[in-house]
Write a structure and sequence with these properties.
single chain; alpha+beta; Heat Shock Protein 90; Ribosomal Protein S5, domain 2; Rossmann fold; eight-stranded mixed beta sheet; about 20% strand; flat
């Protein structure tokens, strides 16, 4: 290997002082510098107030997005200590905001029994990544204030007045040289603040957006805790047990669980540790699932609902239609990976199981009508699972007997390297024909679909296998569905939905996305699902290269740009594309399929709870929530064909 000739001595070893390391590598501390990382700054400061609430000292947190995208977070906790810190020689408050890993969350004699956030680095990281930060503290009868710029102290802590209450107020402006945008999304912040209120029983949180002409404000305060959370998640579903099953136990590892069954076919279980959403689950979720399966089987056997000849109900049978929230508080949580999405403390499994076995068992004995109704659904799910297994095996046997296992309408690509291959799921035969002719056969496959497909939100898995609209998608992707889905077996790195830019096309996209979300969720989580963006308009003139516009804004800009070149609107021909089939193969390639010029939208799942709610509203049985959603969002619709 060729040597890289350069000096390598003491002067080449870089020492980053203070918070320079955070500014140098922000992604290491907040995940990214996108809008997701921007929102993370808010959560870190809010989490400090929540820690005060968990410790029993804070009852209210107020968050505001001020004009200019300045964030203000104020709590009525004890206030950050203001005395000189014995190790740093500066005020404790300044230490918290300028020294990494300084906070009240470390060691056995820390200021908090349990805590969330980034375990002590939150305040200093927010400070480091802000143009300026201003902290006002009310404590010990006085009001104190300090100010920072890009992590450096520009105004040391000083007393500015008296105070007859306690608390901390933090105002900051994120650094626009670090973040891609400073434009906070109110709905995203609102969703997280609501979630915190559910998880912190009795804590009142308000969030206000002061940027518009009319301020928007939401207030959250739930004395019901997780009961209220489950009722919120199920507000658009038909319930089997009207009142959620509620289990709470304090101890070394406090556990709170709420369970409610609905008539839907999907499970929705959310788990949290110290208010952190553990989207990958962990030992607390494992304990919950094990106990749930054991308790229901024991009850069914003990009451002759399951006979000796019957096999046990599987966990997936018992979880069909369940909505549950599990929240545990762990003093020294061990998370797997940097993202804190999976709990690793082995002792938590036993704690949750022991508590669940007793409390859920007692509930079923005391509420036989609820127990019977839930078990009837579980047994029905078991029969459907067996039917799905037989259907799945039939599909496999049928495929094995055929000369090719791939759908007949699939025009496959020549490459077999999944990472470089992509499949376009195209609405309609005519568009499929154009796409087949216009594609790059080396790595682009085309799968035409026709007609409306099954709404999986209203169907069990046994109805999906063999469905003439969905089965070609399942076979083409090649990784199975549901519990059998294996992301390592996907045949294409990109699964691209290409539908018309009209109401029917939007419906087909929604049906396919519902299917992927419910039965191939790892495909979305892994970033393999995309939406193609065909153009809406074409501007043409003899002797001029065609101009394609993808939005109304694009069209207005194109008109202005062409007018600047001396070409008036009267001279231009305008074509509004009603469907993909109107484009010839060359046009489809140039506008929608060529990697050099196309626009693809990656489908992401930032918030599974919100996604579950939206899919249930749009595709579920209840009509009223769907009507309300349409009425609320109709004003935001663009390009609606009438």
């Amino acid at each position: 290997m060729e040597k890289y000739e350069h000096k390598y001595g003491a002067e080449q070893i870089q020492v980053l002082e203070g918070l320079e390391a955070v500014r140098k590598r922000p992604g290491m501390y907040i995940g990214s510098t996108s809008i997701r990382g921007l929102h993370h700054l808010v959560y870190e400061i809010v989490d400090n107030g929540v820690d005060e609430a968990l410790a029993g000292y804070c009852t209210e947190i107020n968050i505001a997005i001020e004009k200019g995208n300045i964030i203000s977070v104020e709590d009525n906790g004890r206030g950050i200590p203001v005395e000189t810190h014995p190790k740093t020689g500066i005020s404790t408050a300044e230490t918290v905001y300028t020294v990494l890993h300084a906070g009240g969350k470390f060691g056995g004699d820390s200021g908090y029994k349990v805590s969330g956030g980034l375990h002590g680095v939150g305040a200093s990281v927010v400070n480091a990544l802000s143009q300026w930060t201003e902290v006002t503290i009310q404590r010990d009868g006085g009001t104190y204030q300090m100010r920072f710029e890009k992590g450096k102290t520009v105004k040391k802590l000083e007393k500015i007045g008296e105070a007859n209450k306690t608390g901390t107020k933090v105002r900051f402006l994120a650094d626009d040289t670090i973040f891609e945008t400073l434009d906070y999304d109110f709905e995203t912040l609102e969703t997280r603040i609501r979630e915190i209120a559910f998880l912190t029983k009795g804590l009142k949180l308000t969030i206000e957006d002061q940027r518009g002409e009319e301020p928007r404000k939401s207030e959250f305060h739930f004395e019901g805790g997780l009961r209220s959370f489950v009722e919120y998640l199920n507000k658009n579903k038909e319930k089997i047990n009207k009142d959620p099953i509620y289990i709470e136990k304090n101890g070394d590892v406090p556990v709170e669980i709420a369970i409610q069954y609905t008539t839907s076919y999907s499970e929705n279980i959310c788990s949290f540790v110290n208010n952190i959403n553990t989207v990958e689950g962990g030992t607390h979720l494992e304990g919950f699932k094990r106990s749930l399966t054991k308790v229901f089987n024991d009850y069914a056997r003990g009451h002759n609902i399951l006979k000796e000849k019957d096999g046990n109900l599987q966990g997936e049978d018992i979880r069909e239609g369940i909505t549950a929230v599990i929240s545990v508080k762990v003093k020294e949580p061990q998370f797997e990976g940097q993202t804190k999405t999976k709990l690793g403390n082995s002792e938590v499994t036993g704690v949750v199981m022991s508590m669940m076995n007793e409390a859920l068992g007692n509930f079923l004995e005391e509420n036989p009508n609820v127990a019977k109704a839930v078990l009837e659904k579980c047994i029905s799910a078991s029969r459907a699972r067996e039917a799905a297994r037989k259907a799945r095996e039939l599909v496999r046997r049928k495929s094995a007997l055929e000369t090719t296992t791939l759908p007949g309408k699939l025009a496959d690509c020549s490459s077999k390297v999944a990472e470089e291959c992509e499949v376009y799921i195209v609405e309609g035969d005519s568009a499929g024909g154009s796409a087949k002719q216009g594609r790059d056969r080396r790595y682009q496959a085309i799968l035409p679909l026709w007609g409306k497909m099954l709404n999986v939100e209203k169907a069990r898995a046994d109805k999906i296998y063999g469905n003439d609209k969905l089965n070609p998608v399942i076979v083409a992707v090649g990784a199975g569905i549901g519990a059998d889905f294996d992301i390592t077996k996907i045949r294409y790195g990109k699964v691209i939905i290409m539908a018309d830019a009209d109401v029917d096309g939007a419906h087909i996209r929604t049906l396919l996305l519902t299917f992927f979300f419910r039965y191939m969720r790892p495909l979305i989580e892994n970033g393999n699902v995309f939406l193609a963006q065909p153009p809406l308009y074409k501007l043409s003139k003899k002797g001029m290269e065609d101009v394609y516009c993808y939005t109304d804004e694009d069209l207005d800009k194109a008109y202005k740009d062409l007018e600047a070149k001396g070409i008036s609107r009267d001279q231009l021909g305008l074509q509004r594309y009603k469907g993909l089939g109107e484009m010839n193969p060359e046009q489809l390639w140039e506008t929608t399929m060529n990697p050099e010029t196309r626009i693809l939208v990656k489908v992401t799942m930032e918030d599974a709870i919100k996604a579950d709610e939206i899919f249930n509203i749009l595709m579920g049985d209840e009509v009223d929530p769907r009507r309300e959603f349409i009425q609320k969002n109709a004003k935001y619709v663009k390009n609606l064909d009438v």
